[in-house]
Structures
1.
Amino acid sequence: MNAHVSVSPALSTPSASAGGLLTIDLAALRANYRLLREEAGGAAVAGVVKADGYGLGARKVAWALWAEGCRSFFVALLSEALELRASLPAAAEILVLNGLSAGSEAAAAEAGVVPVLNSLEQVRAFAALGRARGKPLPAAIQLDSGMSRLGLSPGEVDALTSDAEALAGLDLVLVMSHLACADETAHPANAAQLAAFEALSEKLPSARRSLANSAGIFLGARHRFDLVRPGIALYGGSPVSGRANPMQPVVTLEARVAQLREVPAGAGIGYGFTAVSQAPKRLATIGIGYADGWPRMAASGCAAFFRGVRLPIIGRVSMDSIVLDATHPGADALAAGDLVELIGAHQSLEDVAVAAGTISYEILTSLGRRFERRVLNETAGA
Ligand SMILES: *Cc1c(COP(=O)(O)O)cnc(C)c1O
């Protein structure tokens, strides 16, 4: 074990006041980073830590990745970059995917964060600042290889290259683009975007190139270029749809039982009485609801688990509570105050996302602030 690794806080019963316990295992995150590094061949592996590290805590996540040798970190917003910059070592490269809004160039330059310039205006403004300062500013440029979201269009790339002075003032450290359909391995857009990215990036001065997110890493060597940018796979989400998930789970979510009750046959359960007991039942109400990021749609088909026994969710998800059907001999010992598992060994992040008609990204980034959070295997520095 790494000498810098500590467990914090000690494994213990969570405070009884929280409705749920979210456990984040940074050793699993680090194992996922190592697996992706292997998969990436020779490409460097960045960490995408936008949206507070997909809801898990950007600073702690970034430090855990740093300990594995990760040196490039992507966030979406300048505000996120400035926060991270204050924590990470100076040698960490922090890149801002959404680029810079007009007027924020100096703040980015002063903090030493690297904007991903997404339009001609952004390129011109940042280059002008670099010239004014008499020192080229590190910058990345994003190209739109077909997703129509962010980055320079082919026409804008031509406009840029026809002006010999346009990039003066910039130290171009990275040229990147983003794949729209990488999780669908056979999608024709993957080859089309690759070709477009190669053609467009060749028009720019040579710099490191980056195209692949988590799913893109699994498309093969040609999509990986110099640097890959995984996010969801680091956090245990499945990078490729329709395949067994090779990543280790990072998150466990447990909910506390607030109350147990016996109801007769014919009892309406929860809002709208969408469930009515067909027979006498034992119900357990847990203190987690949609305000904690548990989707209202993740009800029928989902369950909580007590010592491996499946307790189906019954009726609608409320704001702060969910009712479970605990009518099972294996749940006889269940008592108020006990914790039951909602995301973990028995029900994966992906299971919940599928039940809710969404993706693991949305589940993770929605996980609420009312949980007690326990971070395992935290790294020194964080
Ligand atoms: C969010 C994001 C990533 C990470 O994507 P994952 O699918 O989570 O791996 C990479 N690149 C860009 C441009 C992104 O916006």
2.
Amino acid sequence: MSAEIVVDLAAIRHNVKALAAAIGTPVMTVVKADGYGHGMVEVARAAREAGAPWLGVATLAEAVELRDAGDTGRLLCWLSVPSDDFAPVLERDVDVSAYDIAMLDRIAEAAARTGTVPRIHLKVDTGLSRGGSMPVDWRELFEHTLAGQQAGLWTFVGIFSHFASSEEPDNPANESQERVFREALALLDEVGLVPEVRHIANSAAALMRPSARFDLVRCGIASYGLDPTPDLGPDRHHRVDLWPAMTVAGELAMVKHVPAGAAVSYGGHWVAQCDTILGLVPAGYGDGIPRAAADRAQVQVAGVRRPLRGSVCMDQFVVELGPTEEGLHAGEPVVLMGPGHDGEPTAQDWAEATGTIHYEIVTRLGGRLVRRYRDSHAESQAEAPTEPSGQSGQSGESTGGI
Ligand SMILES: *Cc1c(COP(=O)(O)O)cnc(C)c1O
């Protein structure tokens, strides 16, 4: 078995339902970037099964792929370039985003070719300074949108923005961005445009900033069971029980003894201080394992966390099992990361070890890692009859070890 990414679709369904229940506002499940490394189509299907009324992606190509895989609910895409053709998404009934008048006109041109009436969400920049219309341009953009709507070119359905620092709920930038968003809403009203959905909150804001929920929130990271505010103390924490959906596991390709003084992996930066035992893990930076994890991250072998030693290579890396681990052999299961319920490292542990965020850790995984899906709920249902009485119905344990 080569190293694999195991995604628990029951965890995705649980998270989508738990977020909807906790937030009380309709939730768009964000499945861009191949579902943050979990598999876009499979995650989307699980989210819909759990009742997700909206899905969100970045690119037009992602939206097309979802539709061609059979997705039929409301779906928004929000990132395009001038050479993109909107026709394929309009033909597939996807809601589209416009940042400026030129983009609106490109959408209208594709609509004319396809005989469709696009549903438009305007993106306004409230302080992130990334995509979206700057306040100085809003009146002209809104008036153009109204004129196009009156001419039957499109239907205006939404206005949205995006926070810069929502994972820090006390950062004054959140207050400021929400205030600027409300200014945009007031101007919309003045111009005479009525939005169906106003949305600005991502996962962290949806959970930590009720005033920013408006009509719809866009939850990416929390849908995968990863904590959107990992740096907040438990006292400040949201109370939603999120289940991490991803586990990365494999088996040791080799186990061997090396003498004190052995220099491990490229460059020989780590040198064994005593006779010790090493394990070879068959995944590397070609599969999205960060090179920055060298000597910093850990994996779990035989229930114990073991440190990475030496450079992470393209296809493999080395862990130290320790001088006394005579019982471990090639083929021994290794868990690189998982929910953490059984002591294995989490995506957040890898992020802290490598100076990044868990978003990047899970999203970059891929390469030759095989993605496999499981359904811990169905598994626990199937197991229930064979369990001793009194043991069944432990659904709370269903995300346990793999
Ligand atoms: C990626 C993205 C989201 C989801 O953010 P999370 O922090 O993962 O919840 C929401 N909105 C936009 C515009 C995005 O690009």
